């Protein structure tokens, strides 16, 4: 007796017809114990097509990660008025391949007294956690997304938080003081800023009413507006928090070269080091995709349905998918550019500044933003500017204008609150810091015969 379906599974989209036809042809050569328990349609929808999507996604993301390193080096060169990599291939486009080959053939060194098992597993944990969450990201409509689970956002946050274990274990297993200090810094930093990220996302959920990543995009599509207009303060807090969460400058205290040699990966070499490197850039792609989905509409752009409607009916779905994937890639690219720009623009924070920024600035800002967003939403609901129809929010242009203006104005009470909380703080006040240094220490003692500068 053949099974007709798998009731405990839900495919995001049925597989293309040519995939189903190919699987049906393969079924003629398979043993009966397989074909009697699994239909060709189920095999195509739940096994073959998802595996193809996962393979394509891994190739695209790994290629993007490789060329993101080249983009960072090029952008940093432009910022510093340099040329950047331009020797390997035309315009230096083969530099990522050269870097990969170099790391593969370098000697793999493990410290003599290191815990070899954990030392080996640590970078793998970081990379796996970074790549697992890629399965639930909404790259586009229809065939462009692998799966859609109703707790997609929670899944991403929970799995991503496990990735810090790779950094902690790598620093501890190295049996060296500098990696251990880097690991301890990283654990405190990531816990601090994960809390700010989680609170920031709550304000977006007031409008999305779902944890599904596809549902968040569909909510913005149904309203015809991106949530960054309603939640601009939340977007700023999210950007700062994810930069710190991914250990990027100016928050790269876990691998501060001037203080900790290389931080948690000081003892790693060769391909093991490259795995940590890949995990960092993959995490950048993930948080950029989350930001694009929550605040910039994901794959949705106004007018995409009208453009797809002009195409022949047989190609409308493909055109819509292509537009969505392109829009999603551009939005992620813009956020990634902000990552790179910040690294080569701002100096590194001290550790006390890092912790104070997380707990005394971003956390209060995120909490205040939740209260203000909920208040604004309730006022708009009482005024009839927003309504819920079948669990989906609807609003006319007056409602959109109201929430946009109110969202922008909400930044002022948040700034007032932060000013009240940090009025007497000296962590970011260099003048106040200098006044606390004893006068005897501040005086410059010159050797006999040496004149002060400017005399």
What would you say this structure looks like, in words?
- The protein has 455 residues and is an all-alpha fold.
- Helices cover 64% and strands 1% of the residues.
- The chain contains 19 helices and two strands.
- It has a two-stranded antiparallel sheet with strand order 1-2.
- Strand 1 and strand 2 form a beta hairpin.
- The N and C termini lie far apart (98 Å).
- The N terminus is likely disordered.
* Helical content band: 55-70%
Content of β-strand: under 5%
**What is the number of beta strands?**
2
Helix/sheet category = mainly alpha
Q: What best-fitting shape do the alpha-carbon axes yield?
A: globular
Query: Mean pLDDT, as a whole number?
Result: 84
Low-confidence stretches: 1-11
- What count of helical segments does DSSP give? 19
Order of strands across the main sheet: 1-2
Q: How far is it from the N-terminal to the C-terminal residue, by CA?
A: 98 Å
Q: Could you tell me the radius of gyration in angstroms?
A: 26 Å
Question: What does the main sheet amount to?
Answer: 2 strands, antiparallel
Oligomer: single chain
Topology as H/E string? HHHHHHHHHHHHHHHEEHHHH
């Amino acid at each position: 007796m053949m099974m007709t379906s798998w009731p405990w599974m839900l495919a995001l989209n049925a597989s293309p017809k040519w995939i189903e036809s190919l699987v049906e042809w393969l079924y003629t050569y398979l043993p009966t114990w397989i074909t009697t328990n699994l239909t060709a349609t189920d095999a195509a929808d739940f096994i073959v097509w998802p595996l193809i999507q996962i393979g394509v996604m891994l190739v695209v993301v790994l290629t993007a990660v490789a060329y993101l390193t080249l983009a960072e080096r090029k952008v940093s060169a432009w910022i510093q008025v340099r040329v950047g990599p331009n020797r390997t291939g035309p315009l230096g486009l083969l530099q990522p391949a050269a870097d990969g080959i170099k790391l593969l053939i370098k000697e793999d060194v493990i410290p003599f007294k290191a815990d070899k098992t954990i030392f080996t597993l640590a970078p793998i944990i970081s990379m796996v956690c970074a790549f697992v969450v890629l399965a639930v990201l909404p790259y586009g409509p229809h065939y462009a997304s692998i799966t859609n689970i109703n707790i997609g956002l929670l899944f991403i946050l929970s799995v991503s938080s496990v990735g810090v274990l790779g950094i902690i274990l790598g620093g501890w297993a190295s049996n060296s003081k500098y990696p251990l200090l880097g690991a301890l810094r990283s654990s405190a930093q990531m816990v601090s800023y994960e809390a700010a990220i989680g609170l920031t996302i709550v304000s977006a959920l007031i409008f999305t009413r779902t944890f599904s990543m596809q549902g968040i995009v569909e909510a913005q599509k149904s309203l015809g507006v991106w949530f960054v207009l309603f939640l601009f303060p939340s977007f700023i807090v999210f950007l700062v928090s994810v930069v710190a969460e991914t250990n990027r400058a100016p928050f790269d205290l876990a691998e501060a070269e001037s203080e900790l040699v290389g931080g948690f990966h000081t003892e790693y070499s060769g391909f093991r080091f490259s795995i940590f490197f890949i995990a960092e850039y993959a995490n950048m792609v993930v948080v950029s995709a989350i930001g694009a989905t929550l605040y910039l509409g994901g794959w949705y752009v106004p007018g995409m349905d009208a453009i797809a409607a002009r195409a022949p009916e047989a190609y409308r779905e493909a055109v819509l998918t292509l537009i969505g994937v392109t829009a999603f890639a551009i939005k992620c690219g813009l956020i990634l550019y902000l990552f790179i720009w910040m690294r080569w623009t701002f100096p590194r924070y001290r550790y006390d500044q890092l912790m104070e920024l997380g707990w005394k600035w971003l956390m209060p800002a995120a909490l205040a933003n939740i209260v203000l967003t909920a208040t604004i939403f309730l006022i708009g609901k009482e005024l009839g500017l927003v309504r819920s129809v079948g669990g989906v929010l609807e609003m006319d242009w007056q409602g959109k204008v109201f929430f946009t203006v109110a969202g922008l104005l909400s930044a002022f009470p948040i700034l007032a609150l932060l000013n009240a909380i940090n009025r007497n703080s000296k962590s970011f006040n260099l003048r106040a810091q200098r006044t606390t240094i004893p006068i005897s220490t501040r005086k410059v003692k010159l050797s006999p015969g040496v004149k002060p500068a400017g005399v």
